[in-house]
Fold each of these.
Amino acid sequence: MKINSVSIRAMATIDEKHKPKNKRQAFLRLLEYIAPYKKAVAIGVISNLWVGLVVLVPPLIYGKSITDRVVLNLFNESADARWRLLLISTLAQILLYGSSSFMVWVRMKTMHILGERILVDIRKQVYSRLQALSISYFDSGQTGEIMSRVTNDSEVVEEFVTHAADTLISDTIRLAAMCVVMFYVSKTLAIISLLPVPIIFVLALTFSRKVRPIYRKVRERLAEINAKVQENLSGMRVIKAFAREDFEQTNFENETEAFYDMRVRAIRLWTRFFPSIDFQVRTASVVVWSVGAAMILHKVPGVTMGTLIIFTMYLGMFYEPVRSLATINDTIQRSLAAAERIFEVVDEQPQIQDADDAVDLPRIHGRVELDRFNFSYGGEEEVLTDF
């Protein structure tokens, strides 16, 4: 076999062109990992939705049945009828909460097992791609950094499946159902309750835009720390032989401090975002209480003490999924940042690829002759010329 005028070059392989162009593309690709498990996802969503809808019933029981009919006796019912209604209301709530606890168990078991399954699928896919890549990929990348994509980044993506995907769906449906009930009970109080929601979602979008690049840098810094530890442990004999302990210690501390700085930037954004949501929620609750009390004092038709109790209980539950969606947004942003790094590996193509009609080379005999053979690393200065 004769090789004429050949140059072999190791090329950098982590290419920015393979990054998902936007977070929507990365989000849709994450959903592809969930698609094969539609049954498990459906169980998770239905169980979570059941838990969310069950909590809508007790406020109606407390407000209309217990407060207005049993305690205040606004309908002038007999004592026996009121005792009977109290017993039925109590048993109904116990049954509802019992079914809710059962569905919580179903959801936790199903979604956590699904998350672990998808974590395995991601790691298998990434490792399979690494096996197919050219040697130049590993020449240009740090081993610890590559390991971080297989282990740490995939675990962050698993959080998206376990905590974010089904909650995102069920909380959205629960908010819609709660809005319907609140408008049915009192349109005025419902409108007041909804006033902070647009502001909260604008804040959430702003938070997403600012925090996602930071989370990506956090993942990169963590990968650099892993790479540093892996390389130093592998080369500890050389480090000690040349008395480089202090130098490597300084380098490691610098990497760790850089990781800390990125984490602090994310924390500062996070701590500005969530207290502002909490303030708006509490302010809306105070306004609803005040307006509701004023409506009772002015004997507005259809507004009773039971109505105010219903809204008081609903407000806490209404803003819980709003807060939850904001928290999930934080999880999603971290998952998308990690997913981008995973997809860079999955999308990477081997530098040398077989032709479509390639055939397996049988066992050969003879010798290899090199004629005017050139060799270089990464296209830089040639170490062999015209060999």
Note: The longest helix spans residues 79-132.
Amino acid sequence: MQSRKKERKKERKKERKKERKKERKKKERKKERKKEKERKKERKKERKKE
């Protein structure tokens, strides 16, 4: 009984780690998209100036 409980805890920890990694990746992607949008805006401004 005891060992099974421990195993389950370990599994849960692994799962949580995976989930966190996924979340982080999602956040990173969102940040990247924002940066891209900003860059595009800057380019447009530059073109207008010329």
Note: Residues 2-49 form the longest helix (48 residues).
Amino acid sequence: MLIWAKLNHQNIARLYNYSTNPLFHEIEYCGKNLKEVYNSIKSEERIFKIIFDVSEGLKHAHTRNILHRNLTSANVMFDGRDAKISNWYCARYVNRVSRDLQKPYSKYLAPEMILKKKEGFYTDIWQLGVLFYELTTGRVPFNNKDEILNIKVVHPYEIINKCLSKRRKRRYQSVEDFQNDLKALINEKYENFVENKEMFKGISYCCDLLLICLKNNDGVNAYKYLDDLIEYVDNNSIKEDLKHLKESIKYRLENHIPIPKEIIYNAEIITHKIKLVK
């Protein structure tokens, strides 16, 4: 649990306090786990948002050379708005061997975990793919270890197929690569809504794309999505908030200043308002 205590991120459930003797832990309350609620998550846009949230939590851990190793729908908490990774009991540092406080759930095991081979960031990527598949279809892609080792997955999202490649080197090697393809998929959906003049549906995707760009310090594309939102949002108060946000992004682009957390937090509030009133 010492590893978990070192992680502090918006998409990771906080471990506030713990002891091994006597055994107890105090964890942030983050709603229900996805296994309890995923049948009620019907929106494709909501699924993309959850998966991006989870990938953000993984990215934070991976920058610290930490693997989760037990990423399942039971270990991701969801409060209706944000997803947070919990239960880091199987976590370990890359290239280090340590005793698991609990065994990883078998239906999510990556092939290298079953075969006792080297694990890496690609191991968490595999489990992220299983989670993506489960949220999309309502079931996990494999029911036992034999199915995992004799993988045959056909799914419309190439992203999931790449995550679930049996060969480690064919998977995404970083969360950033995964996020780039997820952003491209969301953008494709968004552009289809724009082309078909279905902006009621498209606005939510545009909000998500804005936040993805801001969190990845992509001010140029964030500026573009802000332009779109200003055009499509009817609420004058929110429109003014978007214009102020746009000016803040413009200033940082012109002066080559990274996007701070305060702007991201402000954008999260604004986009939440947009989704409530659209």
Note: Residues 97 and 119 are 10 Å apart (CA to CA).
